[in-house]
User: What shape does this take?
Amino acid sequence: MHYANTYLEKPVVPDVKINKEGSVDVLKCMLNTGSDIYQGACKKRGSTLKEEYKNASGTCYMDPRDMEKLGVNNWDTVLVKTDWGEVVVSAAASRDAPHEGQVFICKGPWANTVVSAETYCCIDPTYKGIHCTVEKTDKKVLLMADLMRKNYKKWVDEDDDEVLENMPSLGELPVFKRKEQED
Assistant: This one.
């Protein structure tokens, strides 16, 4: 029996045509976060440390017109900033457009770095309606383990951001395997 391949390197998104006229360096937007089918499939497969999870969850889905204004193509990297932090993610055209001025990042490690930890007595942080800016960057999207190391200083004694930026990737191996291999 033959089964169709359900693995996708990156989520399927519409094409974007870039027009350099009228472009902006920084785009002011409203950030919403939530669950996504691609992210859910990666989590069910247990691949949260892998490249495919980074491609599904470390992505900022944008209206193609906003991408055109910013001068970014699918899978270019962007820096999303809020009052609570900043994160480098891939840009991709939203399958739910039009929604100019609104961006979407899947709930998870990348989104968690830019949402408020304040729960306002309701258990969950505010995941929707967050003012943000989006700008093009040359930095790369980090794998989850590298993101944890950088933002939460996991698996590292250094507190210097420049030192952290230049450290080799922790890769896709689970932490306990990394420790065993180092010994």
Remarks:
- The longest strand covers residues 26-34.
- The chain has a mean pLDDT of 79.
